[in-house]
Predict the structure.
Amino acid sequence: MRIKVQKAPFDLGGEVNAFTARQNNMGAVVTFTGIVRDLEAGRLEAMEIEHYPGMTEKALGQIARDATDRWSLGDVLIIHRFGRLTPQDMIMMVATSAPHRADAFQAADFLMDYLKSRAPFWKKEVTDAGADWVEARQADEAALDRWG
Amino acid sequence: MRIKVQKAPFDLGGEVNAFTARQNNMGAVVTFTGIVRDLEAGRLEAMEIEHYPGMTEKALGQIARDATDRWSLGDVLIIHRFGRLTPQDMIMMVATSAPHRADAFQAADFLMDYLKSRAPFWKKEVTDAGADWVEARQADEAALDRWG
Amino acid sequence: MDVLYFAWVRERIGEPREHVETGARTVRELVEELRGREDRYAAAFADLDALRVAVDQELADFDAPLKNVREVAFFPPMTGG
Amino acid sequence: MDVLYFAWVRERIGEPREHVETGARTVRELVEELRGREDRYAAAFADLDALRVAVDQELADFDAPLKNVREVAFFPPMTGG
């Protein structure tokens, strides 16, 4: 299990290759990568991500352990950036490995749902008209109910 | 949409980086990679994959189009190998991109379910005791019902 | 028309493809005709539930018509992914 | 104890953290005490439904006890991923 919280960009391809090479007899690897989207009007200057150093690592570790307890997994990787990002920048990624595909898929989906609403990150959108904190979506909170 | 059916290995990291770089304003990229697992007893010498040249490309293209019709996607990539593979070799990968994560996840999951049962590939396991064709699992066929 | 065989069907028939001149109107009639030829065909086509068929490279069923068809393939359930 | 603020809570309070000497027994009592101090606190804590709290870096609720606690943090619902 690896958790990285960092300001620097990460190399998605390098990370997934290294993750996969570390696995032993896992039949399935799933990755999810989140990327900064521009706003509808195409005027996002930056997305600023704030986090809670200390708690962030603990919360991500707990989410990863919950996934490992729940599904038959080989390994979990979570990388999440903070700081100032611009459209097309990668924000975060997760990777899961498992003997069978359903476990790898469900665990990655679960990690994303919990990352959205239970990891202490906050996003601010900066445009030429000002800056606004992104509001948590009801749907993201509701998505947690899927996992009982 | 890209479909590759090939004997040669592929570079998962290079493929996902190239795929992601081609996207325009997609917030989510999901990948699935299938890897040859050893048998319980640890004596798999090889997995031989046969396919139906011509039909394979058509079937994979149709599955990718079905996914694109069904979810709001940016792009789909499918790579599937044939020939003689050994444990830890990557068999295949899919990648999906979408504005939002649920679409990317569901489409990748859907692609895998259809690839398993509707793309003309057949696997043979070779051990020192002989060679056996892998039988299709009832559960894989049943998984298609999830998609209505 | 060309008739193709894959996986254990190919192994039982003993070849991957052959050209067949036939008046069969459906896949099922073609199967009956082949079954009557030699034991290896009877062995390959013993249990149709264990077989899948593609007509001109599209999955089909055993009642599919063969008019203007160029290629029929027989194989076990697929195991991709 | 240390009290930390994130996102718009930090912006309304005007600083990311401060040291607070308090006899508050629960998070809710701490909030009441802070609200009474200055307008900026009253503004930040106007609607508790819009706030989340962590006690010693674990999510908690407003009735959580503060005995032996070193760090309390207030912030809006999280938007990771």
About this structure: The mean pLDDT of chain B is 96.
